[in-house]
Amino acid sequence: MRIYSFEKLDTWQKARIFRKEIYILIRKFPKEEIYGLTSQIKRSASSIGDCLAEGSARITAKDKAHYITMAYSSAIETVNHIIGAHDLEYIEEEEYIAFRLKLDELTNKLNALRNAILKDKA
To answer: CA–CA separation, 62 vs 55, rounded Å?
Structure first.
């Protein structure tokens, strides 16, 4: 079985774990949110790794960086959803803080990866 380049990225590995943790977290959201916040947070959290995978198949550094930027945007969207879940009292303060810290780490890694790709190809 082939291992693709994105699978070797620490950033993608963290995004993969984060997606799983989000899916576990939202199991306790109210059922009436299944087509609302639950759906949105699943999509944005999944999109982080999806964009990294898709971007890894691009040829130019500029294209790769674009997909990393999209992954970053998805992470920021997920921050917004975490805030909303906390505001609606679907998650406790401790969970909120823990997920914000995980997103901080992911966004920092995404920025570093984007900068490295653009610097390396300059």
So the answer is: 10
Listed as own residue / partner, the contacts of 27-30 with beta carbons closer than 8 Å and 24 or more positions apart are 28/90, 29/85, 29/90, 30/90
pTM of the model: 0.94
Query: For the packed helices 10-25 and 37-56, what is the interaxial angle rounded to 10 degrees?
Result: 170
H or E element that contains 10: helix 10-25
The closest alpha carbon to 114, from 61, 57, 77, 53, belongs to 61
pLDDT at 122 over 90: no
- Here the tokens at position 99 are 């997920």
Q: Which domains does the chain show, CATH number per domain? A: 8-120 (1.20.1440.60)
